[in-house]
Write a structure and sequence with these properties.
By secondary structure, the protein is an alpha+beta fold. Helix content is 20%, strand content 46%. A 6-stranded mixed beta sheet has the order 3-11-10-5-8-7. This is FixH family protein.
Length: 165
């Protein structure tokens, strides 16, 4: 048996420090990664609140507030605000939206709901001065990346959102 030399720090150990340094380096990277995930969660990029939780889609006479990130089987809300005075407002949402979400409640209820080619069209009667607001309470039924088209008063916008498990 060989006796290890005495190191400059006074210890009489013969251990490979390279393995320990690699472990510490990996540990620091993991802590920075955890911190970044926490920061993303605080900012709202993992759903359920935060600055970046919702995205606002602008139309000519309306705007839609839609979540950027939703949670699987979690409740979310889509709000459509109409700025123009009209007798009724029409909203058309393409089928990929209904494949990913179940609509729990629509407030106010649409006066008319029609099935169109690859979409659903809802008509909402109005009373009183603008702005008018429609709210859809949603529950994500599947997770993954979702893209769908929303048409408000004849103007179509593409909306993308992520549903996390």
């Amino acid at each position: 048996m060989t006796i290890p030399e005495i190191r400059p720090d006074g210890l009489q150990l013969d251990e490979p420090r390279d393995r320990q340094r690699r472990y510490w380096r990996i540990q620091r990277i993991a802590w920075w990664t955890f911190g970044a995930v926490m920061l993303l969660a605080i900012l709202g990029l993992t759903g359920s609140g935060g600055v970046f939780h919702t995205q606002t889609i602008h139309f000519a006479n309306a705007r839609a507030e839609v979540p950027r990130v939703s949670r699987w089987e979690g409740m979310d809300e889509v709000a459509i605000i109409f700025d123009n005075p009209a007798d009724s407002h029409e909203v058309r949402i393409s089928q990929p939206f209904f494949e990913r979400f179940s609509v729990e409640r629509i407030q106010p209820e649409p006066d008319q709901s029609l099935l169109a080619q690859g979409a659903q069209t809802m008509t909402f009667p109005t009373a009183g001065p603008a702005p008018h607001e429609v709210k859809l309470d949603l529950r994500a039924t599947h997770f993954g990346w979702t893209g769908f088209d929303m048409t408000v008063e004849g103007e179509t916008r593409r909306i993308n959102l992520l549903v996390l498990p």
